[in-house]
């Protein structure tokens, strides 16, 4: 690595740093927050942030950078926090990440940067995610969230369309506008942010934060067009031929809910996680009837699945007033793909976990509303390719439980809309768009990244893919299209 | 009438005919799935299955099959409780996997019944036991794929 | 974007509680085909509702929708006038109607379904079909678009529940009349309230006439992302928004769809009541102000 070690602003001797306890982020009390949709985590105070930053031992080889999918210069921004120059710290992060306030909230740092933190080998790792969140929020509150004061780059004359305003699209837009290209983001829904706005609940990622991040991009020159479905309102070909775009990035996300194919899945009260969360988050169904979109308020809700989406759904159901909101998961807690923090928060809020249980049928009443779930108990058998032990049903263990709402959160496939209307785009057997490492698809000038390529993954991986594709698009424009301006 | 009873009332050529018919149905299904598959990896996967079932069909003529698996794999039963999709030529990949896994399960059970039926005949018993194990392995592979793609968080 | 978008160019009641809107939407007008729909929001706290496109003009850049004020959102929508703007409008959504030259097509419609059937009837006529339209309504004053339909098709027949116009009876009675007259329809298209489509489907199934229906389902995004609009067709779950909205009537599970349409009945009534109360207050306040 040829990076230079950042100047140290930490007055505390290294040995003493290890004795400083990891700073806990203040949170809303579980018994209060499970009745509201306000943000759970309240963020570190300035003092806490500086103390936490001082826990960094300034390793010669900072492994944390390698643990970050977008290679944020973590040691550098941490030293700037020690220096109490929080705005400079924020700008340092923004060199590599376009949505720090979002990532500081939703990234699984414990399995990325913090997982490889050297301090964490013997003590608790430095709370990098909390620090990221702190400086990003600080910058937003102190009017330096937009980078609009930085000079606009020389226009290149190249036009790039970005399809989808989720994390992949926003990250790509951020990198491409930096280069001086003309960037237009198309969004199918009436708000920007993709899964960040329809999927992730207010209590984990306030919409106001997201809107500010989008406004920042707008201030930097990105054009945003909502209510516009590429593939329907306009085809991909027309973007090139009629609108004069030189390249297109597809960041469509994993917009196709998986169902289980068991009897009773179409009963009223059985939702896909996408529908349930969209009704609550995007449409703000939790404020019905002040907001128009209705949403079931269940007494006994079960959410099938063990990912972050399942945790978001179950915590939403609890907040909507469920007496019992339970996770029903085929495997054991150890195998859950959800972040530990989400599982922990859900438990604190009174969510029940029914592990090693799998529904095999939903039972309805005469109005077609779900009233019960027939389930099987499972036991763990051999491990699969990913090392997770595989659940196997226990013969004769069937039981019936009363439920008045079910949310299916077993995962998502790829939305087929673009593939259907654009035969030139190659997809694999699961409907994911086939793209190489740089995001290049089988159609010239069309790049893709995020869940539409990889299947359901994380926000930061999608952002990483968006950035990679942005680099590839720059390269493509230089070599293929040539300089127009 | 259970399959076991049915078997005991059949002669050998009827049994072979039943088995070949079962294998042919699987071949037809996988051929259809192969034609529908959009990418080479999927096509290859179904081609392999077609090839293996074709080998089965042929080996039913001699009751000899090369043993290349050691242990019968665990039955994951992932698709046992799922609804059987209505057969038409418009199946989704998810439905193809369900239909295929259920078919392998049924075929494995048929061969297991045949192995039990011929418990006194060492050659036939071994042959049908191996066939049962192979079909179970196919089911296992199909269900693993199903889990990975359709229950990523389930 | 935003303020100047989705302008209502004209708005007029064409029957009690049924309003016809012409909305500025050049992109949608340019792309839409018969059978497709849009999703709109009336205001910034509004829900997303799907409405079939009745007509459009590519050169002038507008689309036409016909709205029956049944629930809160449609009632609110029907208070809007020319010059007002919609909050959001997206489309065209859904697959276009599959049109071919079947021979004789009977196009059966009820309620605002008649407006939705117009583009299909026109496309079928253009494809060379003999098109007979059967329009049903509870009574004469609720009939819409029958004149417009008359300009398109070979023949229009009307039925009303109370006998105030056309044949006293249901659209299915008229279809039976047609068959009794010796006309053998090659294809039936039915668009209207679910019970009407279910009745037509049951009738044509017994006499073996292929029938297509345009399904109305509760939707949120309209792009296949949420699955709110699922229905069972031929024993399989489909998403009406991306796999439809048109399906082979004889394969549709109408009972399930009927129950799914009523999923939020209680909440819808509550929401509608709140809206009506607010409207009442507004009217009263205006009256008070005018009185002073």
Describe, in plain words, how this protein is organized in 3D:
The complex is a heterotrimer of chains A (485), B (154) and C (292). Chain A is an alpha/beta fold and 485 residues long. Helix content of chain A is 33%, strand content 16%. Chain A has 3 domains: 129 residues, Fumarate Reductase Iron-sulfur Protein, Chain B, domain 2 (Orthogonal Bundle); 175 residues, 3-Layer(bba) Sandwich (FAD/NAD(P)-binding domain); 152 residues, 3-Layer(bba) Sandwich (FAD/NAD(P)-binding domain), CATH 3.50.50.60. In chain A, the strands form 4 sheets. In chain A, strands 3-2-1-4-16 form a 5-stranded parallel sheet. A 5-stranded parallel sheet of chain A has the order 6-14-7-8-9. In chain A, strands 10, 11, 12 and 13 form a 4-stranded antiparallel sheet that branches. Chain A is globular, with a radius of gyration of 23 Å. Chain B is mostly helical and 154 residues long. Chain B is 70% helix and 0% strand. In chain B, helix 2 packs antiparallel against helix 3 and helix 2 packs antiparallel against helix 4. With 292 residues, chain C is α/β, with parallel strands linked by helices. Chain C folds into 3 domains: 86 residues, Translation factors (Elongation Factor Tu (Ef-tu), domain 3), CATH 2.40.30; 116 residues, Rossmann fold (3-Layer(aba) Sandwich); 49 residues, no CATH class. Chain C has 9 helices and 16 strands. Chain C has a 7-stranded mixed sheet, sandwiched between helices. Chain C is globular. Chains A and B meet through strand 10, strand 11, strand 12 and strand 15 of A and helix 4 and helix 5 of B.
């Amino acid at each position: 690595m040829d990076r230079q070690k950042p100047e140290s602003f930490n007055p505390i001797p290294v040995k003493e740093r290890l004795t400083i306890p990891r700073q806990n982020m203040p949170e809303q009390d579980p018994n209060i927050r499970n009745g509201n949709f306000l943000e759970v985590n309240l963020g570190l105070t300035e003092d806490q942030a500086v103390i936490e930053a001082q826990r960094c031992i300034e390793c010669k080889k900072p492994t944390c950078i390698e643990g970050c999918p977008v290679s944020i210069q973590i040691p550098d921004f941490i030293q700037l926090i020690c220096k109490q120059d929080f705005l400079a710290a924020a700008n340092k992060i923004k060199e590599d990440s376009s949505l720090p306030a979002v990532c500081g909230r939703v990234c699984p740092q414990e399995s990325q940067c913090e997982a490889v933190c050297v301090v964490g080998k013997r003590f608790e790792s430095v709370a990098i995610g909390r620090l990221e969140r702190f400086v990003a929020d600080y910058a937003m509150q102190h009017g330096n969230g937009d980078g609009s004061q930085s000079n606009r780059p020389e226009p290149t004359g190249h036009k790039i369309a970005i399809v989808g305003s989720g994390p992949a699209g926003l990250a790509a837009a951020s990198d491409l506008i930096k280069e001086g290209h003309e960037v237009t983001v198309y969004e199918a829904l009436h708000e920007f942010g993709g899964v960040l706005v329809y999927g992730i609940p207010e209590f984990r990622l306030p919409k106001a934060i997201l809107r500010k991040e989008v406004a920042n991009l707008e201030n930097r020159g990105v054009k945003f067009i909502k209510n516009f479905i590429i593939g329907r309102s306009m085809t991909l070909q027309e973007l090139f031929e009629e609108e004069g775009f030189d390249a297109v990035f597809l960041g469509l996300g994993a917009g196709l809910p998986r169902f289980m194919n068991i009897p009773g899945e179409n009963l009223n009260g059985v939702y896909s996680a996408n529908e349930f969360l969209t009704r609550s988050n995007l449409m703000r169904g939790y404020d019905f009837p002040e907001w128009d979109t209705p949403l079931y308020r269940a007494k006994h809700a079960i959410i099938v699945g063990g990912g972050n989406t399942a945790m978001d759904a179950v915590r939403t159901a609890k907040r909507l007033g469920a007496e019992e909101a339970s996770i029903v998961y085929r495997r054991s807690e150890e195998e859950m793909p959800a972040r530990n923090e989400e599982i922990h928060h859900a438990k604190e809020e009174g969510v029940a976990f029914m592990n090693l249980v799998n529904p095999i049928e939903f039972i309805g009443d005469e109005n077609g509303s779900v009233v019960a779930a027939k389930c099987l108990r499972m036991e763990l058998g051999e491990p699969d390719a990913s090392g997770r032990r595989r659940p196997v049903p226990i013969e004769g263990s069937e039981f019936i439980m009363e439920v008045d709402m079910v949310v299916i959160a077993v995962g998502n496939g790829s939305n087929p809309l673009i593939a259907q209307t654009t035969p030139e785009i190659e997809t694999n057997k699961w409907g994911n768009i086939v793209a190489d490492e740089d995001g290049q698809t089988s159609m010239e000038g069309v790049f893709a990244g995020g869940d539409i390529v990889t299947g359901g993954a994380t926000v930061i991986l999608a952002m990483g893919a968006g950035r990679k594709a942005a680099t590839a698009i720059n390269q493509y424009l230089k070599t293929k299209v040539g300089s127009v301006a | 009438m259970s399959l076991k009873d049915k078997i005991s009332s059949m002669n050998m050529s009827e049994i072979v005919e039943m088995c070949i018919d079962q294998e042919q149905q699987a071949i037809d299904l996988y051929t259809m799935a192969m034609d529908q598959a959009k990418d080479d990896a999927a096509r290859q996967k179904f081609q392999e299955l077609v090839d293996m079932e074709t080998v089965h069909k042929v080996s039913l003529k001699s009751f000899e099959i090369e043993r290349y698996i050691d242990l019968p794999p665990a039955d994951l039963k992932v698709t046992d409780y799922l609804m059987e999709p209505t057969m038409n030529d418009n199946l989704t990949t998810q439905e193809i996997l369900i239909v295929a896994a259920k078919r392998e399960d049924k075929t494995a059970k048929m061969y297991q019944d045949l192995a039990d039926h011929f418990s006194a005949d060492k050659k036939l018993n071994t042959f049908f036991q191996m066939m049962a194990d192979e079909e179970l392995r196919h089911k296992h592979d199909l269900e693993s794929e199903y889990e990975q793609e359709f229950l990523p968080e389930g | 974007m935003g303020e100047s978008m989705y302008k209502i160019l004209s708005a007029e009641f064409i029957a009690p509680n049924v309003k016809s809107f012409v909305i500025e939407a050049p992109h949608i007008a340019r792309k839409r085909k018969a059978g497709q729909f849009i999703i709109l929001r009336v205001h910034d706290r509004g829900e997303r509702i799907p409405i079939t496109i009745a007509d459009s003009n590519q050169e002038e850049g507008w689309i036409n929708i016909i709205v029956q004020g049944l629930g809160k959102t449609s009632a609110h929508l029907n208070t809007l006038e020319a010059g007002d703007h919609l909050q959001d409008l997206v489309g065209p959504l859904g697959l276009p109607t599959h049109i071919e030259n079947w021979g004789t097509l009977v196009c059966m419609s009820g309620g605002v379904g008649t407006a939705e059937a117009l583009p299909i009837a026109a496309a079928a006529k253009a494809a060379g079909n003999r098109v007979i339209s059967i329009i049903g309504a509870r009574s004469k004053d609720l009939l819409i678009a029958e004149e417009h339909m008359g300009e398109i098709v070979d023949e229009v027949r009307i039925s009303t529940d109370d006998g105030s116009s056309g044949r006293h009876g249901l659209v299915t009675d008229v279809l039976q009349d047609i068959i009794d007259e010796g006309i053998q329809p090659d294809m039936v298209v039915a668009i209207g309230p679910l019970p009407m489509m279910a009745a037509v489907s049951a009738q044509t199934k017994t006499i073996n006439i292929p029938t297509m229906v345009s399904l109305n389902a509760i939707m949120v995004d309209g792009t296949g992302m949420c699955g709110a609009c699922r229905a069972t067709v031929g024993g399989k779950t489909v998403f009406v928004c991306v796999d439809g909205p048109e399906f082979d009537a004889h394969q549709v599970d109408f009972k399930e769809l009927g129950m799914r349409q009523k999923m939020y009945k209680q909440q819808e009534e509550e929401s509608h009541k709140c809206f009506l109360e607010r409207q009442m207050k507004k009217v009263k306040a205006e009256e008070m102000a005018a009185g002073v």
